[in-house]
Design a protein that fits this description.
Elements lengths: L2 E11 L5 E11 L3 E5 L6 H8 L7 E6 L2 E2 L4 H6 L1 E4 L11 H11 L6 H10 L15 H13 L5 E5 L7 H16 L3 E6 L2 H7 L2 E6 L2 E7 H8 L1 E8 L15 E4 L4 E7 L7 H10 L4 E8 L2 H14 L1
Parallel strand pairs: 3-8, 3-9, 6-7, 7-8
Antiparallel strand pairs: 1-2, 1-4, 4-5, 9-10, 11-13, 11-14, 12-13
């Protein structure tokens, strides 16, 4: 799939010498959902703001559907919708007026059918004549998305879209993103919620200290870097591992009441059959067996810790 956003060796160094972005290169494909993960101060918002033309880079280039963000700013920006992290809305505006105004800012002709379709898609149509100050935090975030979509952009940037939103509204936002993707909108979101990336992203990018650590298909990443664990509940607790089990990657937990066996899902063999055979040979009686796989959060934390230690 061709890239709609191309970031090439992007740099941003502020006047005080702080380098917020360091040689960032990134291709974002048409119609994908890319989740950008990173700790506070990693450069996520700076990267989004630079692509959107709100921050001037000190090096490198960005093209949006072939338009250079500096030389062809208007053409590039017209293709982009941005939902900022902070809720910046006029409290006394009505919802529908606020969305109409955003469309007008891009010089788009009046289109009530599009405004209605957008508000309905975001479950805001019934609130169209409500003033912003009367809405919940979750509804205000939906208004921000509606304003970002008012001029019919092909790319939508969501900067921490569910920050401060309860779990139910967060999941509703995920459904909204899925609907936008189905309409062909390319979506890039930054998030602190790992389960958010796990639930809705096609690809995951990890950024730390202004550098991209990786960008990879979410499922492939989890298959490549995820590790599985086998938890074995024992009928009788052990005080120590028998010598015959020393060849296995085993850990005695819960005061000897259980064993945890870690193995690589990408390996040619799991070693479980041999482990169970060796357990039986050692006279160890099993009570229960459970498996679990490392999450995207485990992978993310591991990558960031490796980078910080380097």
């Amino acid at each position: 799939m061709s890239a709609i956003v191309k970031v090439d060796r992007l740099e941003k160094t502020y006047a005080d010498g702080f380098q917020a972005l360091s040689s960032v290169s990134l291709d974002i494909a048409h119609g994908e959902v890319l989740a950008l993960l990173g700790p506070n101060g990693a450069g996520k918002t700076t990267l989004i703001s630079t692509i959107c033309g709100l921050v001037q880079p000190t090096g490198g280039s960005v093209h949006v559907d072939g338009h250079d963000i500096a030389a062809d700013y208007r053409q590039a920006r017209a293709l982009i919708g941005l939902v900022p992290q902070e809720i910046t809305l006029e409290p006394f505006d009505k919802v529908i007026s606020s969305v109409r105004f955003s469309r007008g800012l891009f010089g788009k002709p009046r289109d009530e059918a599009h405004i209605e379709r957008t508000l309905r898609q975001l479950s805001l149509w019934d609130k169209r004549n409500s003033r912003i100050k009367e809405l919940s935090g979750g509804m205000k975030r939906r208004v921000l998305i509606a304003k970002a979509l008012a001029h019919e952009p092909r790319i939508l940037f969501l900067d921490e879209p569910t920050a401060g939103v309860d779990v139910e509204l967060r999941r509703g936002m995920w459904d909204t993103v899925a609907g936008l993707k189905a309409d062909g909108v390319t979506i890039i979101l930054t998030t602190h919620y790992i389960e958010e990336a796990e639930a809705i992203a096609d690809r995951v990018g990890v950024i730390n200290k202004g550098r991209i650590l990786l960008v990879e298909d979410k499922d492939k990443l989890m298959a490549r870097m995820g590790r599985k664990q086998l938890r074995i509940e024992l009928h009788e607790p052990l005080t120590a591992l028998p010598e015959g089990l020393s060849g296995h990657d085993l850990e005695l937990v819960d005061d000897g009441a259980a064993l945890v066996y870690t193995y690589d899902t990408a390996g040619p063999r799991t070693g479980i059959t041999r482990l169970l055979s060796d357990l039986a040979a050692a006279g160890i009686v099993l009570r229960d067996i459970q498996t679990s796989q490392s999450s995207l959060e485990d992978i993310f934390v591991g990558l960031v810790q490796e980078e910080d230690a380097a």
